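Would you mind writing out a protein's amino acid sequence and the numbers that encode its backbone to help me picture the idea?
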Amino acid sequence: MGIRLYRFGCAALLTAALAAAQSAPSFEAASVKRNQSNARTIGFQMLPSGRVHIVNVPLYIIISLAYDLPFQSITERLSSGPDWVRSEPYDIEATAGSLPPEMTSKARQDRMKLMLRTLLADRFHLQLSHSAKEMPVYAVLVAKNGPRLTPAKVAEKDCAAADLNPPCHVVNGGIGRGLHGKAVDIQDIAAHAENWSDRPIQDRTGLTGLYTIDTEGWVPMQPRPPASDAAPPSAEALAMSDPTRPTLFVIMDRLGLKLEPTKGPVDIYTIDHVERPTEN
């Protein structure tokens, strides 16, 4: 009887594992190719139609996109793996097929990121270990006098049908151009600004609405590398050294938000296994 129970338990576990793998969302069609163009430009698009377009992007950056890891702290939050993961760029073209029309744009993005994780596991045989580590972070809080945010012209339920450029939950810009979005929430703002922050940024405002934002750029939070003595300062370097340029703290303050240094749990990933893909 003990043997029968043991064998049944193994079969049940195997069935559960297979069911979990089959239930993981995946792209309807996908192409993965090594980019050998030596081009300097890279591109990444995750379109509302369900299409993912990635050009000339190293695998560790693609992993960071799939797992919501900011570029600025990726070396602290994604470790191990062979050198080629950081040096070899890839092109990925993938389509999700039909997505439910009632699905919100945020849900579409989240589902497509899950599909991208499935693709990385299938084509690169990527295996990651995950843990949460207490680290210094910035908490986004509502400022003393309350938020000064412009409500978006659309509600979350209308995002799928809205004709917005950029679409809901997409923030454009960055340290040089500022933050710009037509219908974004505080989590979207925090996640985008985090790419140029010296520590992770976590939304603790409790605000759930969608907002329209247009801000100035801000000065770097980390020292810029010194320029060569022989080279004149670039236009970007001059702009970044402008003493009238605001900090990210000032940008948040103008939105009626406060960026407060504190500590919090941060997702950490380790590459346990990865292989170069078979291209098709």
